[in-house]
Amino acid sequence: MARRSKRNFIATILIIALLLYGVVFWILPIFIGGLGLISSFVNSPSSSPQNISDSAVFAPPVLNIPYEATNTGQIDIKGYATPAVDVKIYVNNKLADELRASGDGSFISQQINLKFGLNEIYGKTADDQNHESLPSKVLKITFDDETPRLTIFEPEDGKVIQGERKIKVSGETEPEAKVYINGTRVVVDSEGKFSSMETLSDGENTFTTKAVDAASNTTEIIRKITFNP
What we know:
Layout: H1 2-43, H2 52-55, E1 62-64, E2 69-70, E3 74-80, E4 86-91, E5 94-100, E6 106-113, E7 117-126, E8 139-143, E9 150-154, E10 160-162, E11 166-173, E12 178-181, E13 184-186, E14 193-199, E15 203-212, E16 218-228
Parallel strand pairs: 2-8, 10-16
Antiparallel strand pairs: 1-3, 3-6, 4-5, 4-7, 7-8, 9-11, 11-14, 12-13, 12-15, 15-16
């Protein structure tokens, strides 16, 4: 009986020793590490507030060019932006002008140079630290100062007609051009051809045929026809 009690006492001592070893070398380090993590989380300084201007999202300007083609190499560009911000105007991806929007957001960029042919124009806004907005919508403007081609097939200039008061005026121009005969617009087909039946008055009749392209370049041909009843 005494021997069994002694064995139980020794076993109890061994179990207690193993428990103490586990607490000291396993559980206690984990517990201390957890406290340190919590403490660092609680006591960590709050992140410094972000500079508002660094993260600001600027609205791009709105450009107003009310045409798609022009016959002049310099144009003025009107538009609107956030009031009192800088506006940058780009032509063909090159900075063409930089100006300040007014208190109501309006601006006018004057005498912007265009190259012959197609020009792509857009704008950006920027603050005093030069943080820029995304580009505005790209506007495509064609600079063309060449007059449209115009040929009159009939009638011949100076022709004298008797009897029939109707005469055909026909010709050819560029397919995209508009044609006017004595101020009245006539139909131009896909090949640029046109024709119109006109009524003659007694004596001399003048027929002015005018072709106007998209850039408002104009070519004009005059035919004089005499009608003898």
